[in-house]
């Protein structure tokens, strides 16, 4: 459990770095999904499976909406 928590923490930090270091929304969403999976894995290892499921649904929905909006703005010609 300790190694799993350490791995999830490292994935959480790595995902945050990916989001912060990439100017394109296509790669930023990969970092957000990595943070999402790491956070849910961390909660699941603590025994909070319902909270992890709610976190997954809400955060994934927000990520999808922000990704679609940022891709639409990045593809704008003006």
Automatic annotation (TrEMBL):
<keyword id="KW-0520">NAD</keyword>
<keyword id="KW-0249">Electron transport</keyword>
<keyword id="KW-0496">Mitochondrion</keyword>
<keyword id="KW-0812">Transmembrane</keyword>
<keyword id="KW-0813">Transport</keyword>
<dbReference type="GO" id="GO:0031966">
    <property type="term" value="C:mitochondrial membrane"/>
</dbReference>
<feature type="transmembrane region" description="Helical">
    <location>
        <begin position="24"/>
        <end position="43"/>
    </location>
</feature>
<feature type="transmembrane region" description="Helical">
    <location>
        <begin position="50"/>
        <end position="75"/>
    </location>
</feature>
<protein>
    <recommendedName>
        <fullName>NADH-ubiquinone oxidoreductase chain 6</fullName>
        <ecNumber>7.1.1.2</ecNumber>
    </recommendedName>
</protein>
<comment type="similarity">
    <text>Belongs to the complex I subunit 6 family.</text>
</comment>
<dbReference type="InterPro" id="IPR042106">
    <property type="entry name" value="Nuo/plastoQ_OxRdtase_6_NuoJ"/>
</dbReference>
<keyword id="KW-1133">Transmembrane helix</keyword>
<keyword id="KW-0679">Respiratory chain</keyword>
<dbReference type="GO" id="GO:0008137">
    <property type="term" value="F:NADH dehydrogenase (ubiquinone) activity"/>
</dbReference>
<keyword id="KW-1278">Translocase</keyword>
<dbReference type="InterPro" id="IPR050269">
    <property type="entry name" value="ComplexI_Subunit6"/>
</dbReference>
<keyword id="KW-0472">Membrane</keyword>
């Amino acid at each position: 459990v300790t190694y799993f928590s350490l791995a999830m923490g490292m994935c959480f930090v790595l995902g945050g770095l990916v989001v912060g270091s990439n100017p394109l929304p296509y790669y930023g969403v990969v970092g957000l999904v990595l943070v999402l999976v790491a956070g849910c894995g961390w909660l699941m290892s603590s025994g909070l499976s319902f909270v992890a499921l709610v976190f997954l649904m809400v955060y994934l929905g927000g990520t999808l909406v922000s990704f679609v909006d940022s891709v639409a703005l990045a593809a704008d010609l003006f």
